[in-house]
């Protein structure tokens, strides 16, 4: 079945993680993605740890790869020929690089007025820090995220995934889709851009709004929810669970289910305000109950009472959970060098497109599809050889 984005061609100039995440969103839903990288003699290393690594394959599946030397006259001209026929260009160079190479939005717009040009950077296209390089961990710190992560009094803590990179990539992918819809209506192209910092500030969500609206500066709460109680991590006989019983209805149902209805009638805990004001005492009381129960028993009892509750897994346990297996989050692909392997599919589900068991293609190795793409563009073997001899590809 033809996927929703199969009519669109994307030129992917991205490296690192944020840009490739945006492009992956488009590739997974059928876009013709051409990943453009410098030729081998440029000496660039793959930040994912190698073309056949899990990281690289997961970031770049469903893309084709070619090499172009954008610093050469012939390579620059070749890129503009590709851009003239493309729908979207995605880049995450430092601010000045795209202008120095002559592949910025205005340069591409001259050959393709309808182009959707998408940029992601560490700190944005303008402002005092716009020239700075940006990486996830630095932005986690500068956005305030690390100040609300971790145990109180133990100092800032990073989140265990590249959350600002992946968030920026998701926002940029959404921006590209909106720009394509705008072009469908008006014929007008757009420059869409975001940054790791903008994306992470947005992802602070209610924690950020607590400051912008009320002047509150949230702090670390460890595994407890910052504004609801009881909601957090509780110990069991054989492990730990996350449990949420923070509304009056849920708290009453939970305490009744565990045989302690008096807790819900206690003046300290009868309403939300009281449960928050006395959260530490309440945590101790509930933890005293849960430590006498097995994890599976508590999960079933709490959920039956209408209170969200689940075990705390490691990555392997998460993927092997029976419900996760039913969601089919693993999808198979194959490379000759390593055989069949599984990657993590897009989490988007559409009733018109049943979940496939296989990705269309694995991530490419450097320049794997250069000749294939150029032949599609109308170049013959002699043209391709001339470009290679000139160092353009």
Give a structural overview:
With about 400 residues, the chain is of the alpha/beta class. It has 2 domains: about 10-205 and about 330-390, Rossmann fold (3-Layer(aba) Sandwich), CATH 3.40.50.10540; about 230-310, 2-Layer Sandwich (formyl-coa transferase, domain 3). The chain contains 18 helices and 11 strands. The chain has a 6-stranded parallel sheet, with helices on both faces. A 3-stranded antiparallel sheet has the order 7-8-9. A hairpin with a 2-residue loop joins strand 7 (about 230-235) and strand 8. Helix 1 (about 20-30) packs across helix 7. The protein is elongated.
Query: Can you identify the CATH superfamily of the largest domain?
Result: Crotonobetainyl-coa:carnitine coa-transferase, domain 1
In CATH, the architecture of the largest domain is: 3-Layer(aba) Sandwich
DSSP, total strands: 11
Determine the CATH topology of the largest domain: Rossmann fold
Terminal CA distance reads 34 Å
Helix-strand string = EHEHEHEHHEHHEHHEEHHHHHEHHEEHH
The class by helix and strand makeup works out as alpha/beta
Sum up the structure in keywords.
6-stranded parallel sheet; formyl-coa transferase, domain 3; 15% strand; Rossmann fold; 2 domains; 393 residues; alpha/beta; 11 strands; 3-stranded antiparallel sheet; 18 helices
